[in-house]
Amino acid sequence: LEARADALTDVHPKHWLRIPATLEEYFEVVEATEGQPFDLEFEDGIILARMSYATKPHEAIVANLVTLFNIFYRDDETIGVYGSARLVYVADCNRAYNPDVVVVKEPEEYFARPGKPLAITNPTVLVEVHSNSTEGYDYTHKLMCYKQLASIQHIVYVSQLKPFVTVYSRTDEGQQWLNADYGKLEMEIGLGELKLSMRELYRKVVFKSTAEK
C-alpha cells in the first residue's frame, strides 16, 4: 500500500491513475495520503487517483454553493453542508466518490470502520463542478451510480467553463427522475423549495473564451 500511495506522486494533474485494489485497501490509501493533494475515488475494484487540480473558477463555484446552501439551511440544525472533504459511498455499485458539495440530513449514516475514514451513505443533494476533462465521467459513471442512493433527491452538475447547470431531481414517486437545464445568469435553479440564483452561483467567476481542461 505504501508503494501504491507513493505512485500517486507521479500522476499528471489531468489524468487518472488506475490501481487495482479492494475497498479496504482504498480506505487505507485514503488514510495514508490524508492532507496530501490527491483526489482518490473507488470504482468496484479500482482506485482512481490523480493530483488535485482545482481551477480558480472551480473553487469560486464550490465556495458560492456552500455559502448559498448554508444560508438557506442556517436555521435547520438537522442539515449538514460539506465540501469535497466528505466521501460518499454507494453500496449498490460498490463505489466511493468525492463530490464537490454534499448536503445530508441527520442522522448521517456512514460506511464506517473503527478508526478509519468515514464515507457518507445517505446524502440528499450532490454537486459536481466539471470541466471538459471530467464532464463525460460525471455524466456516465457517477450519475448512474448516484441515482442508486435511496436518500438522494437532487444531483447537480455545474459547468465551470460557461453558465450552465443541469439538475436531476427524483420525483415524488421515487422511481423516476426529472431533468432541468439552466443556461442563463438570470435564471433560478430549482431544488425543491430551495431556489439558487445562477448569478450568485457564478459570482466572481470569469469565463475564458477558450475551454479550460
Structure description:
With 213 residues, the chain is α+β, with helices and mostly antiparallel strands. 24% of the residues lie in helices and 33% in strands. The protein has a seven-stranded mixed β-sheet with strand order 1-3-2-6-5-9-8, sandwiched between helices. A six-stranded mixed β-sheet has the order 4-7-10-11-12-13. A two-stranded antiparallel ribbon has the order 14-15. Strand 8 and strand 9 form a beta hairpin. It starts with a helix and ends in a 12-residue tail after the last helix. The relative contact order is 0.13.
Strand order of the largest sheet: 1-3-2-6-5-9-8
The count of DSSP E runs of length 2 or more, i.e. the number of strands, is 15
Mean pLDDT value: 87
CA-based gyration radius: 17 Å
> How many angstroms separate the termini?
30 Å
> Uncertain runs with pLDDT below 50, 5 residues or more?
8-13
Q: Helix- and strand-based class?
A: alpha+beta
Helix count, per DSSP? 5
Produce the secondary structure layout.
Blueprint: H1 2-7, E1 17-20, H2 23-32, E2 38-43, E3 46-51, H3 56-72, E4 79-82, E5 87-90, E6 95-97, E7 101-105, E8 110-111, E9 119-120, E10 123-130, H4 132-146, E11 154-159, E12 165-170, E13 177-182, E14 188-191, E15 194-197, H5 198-201
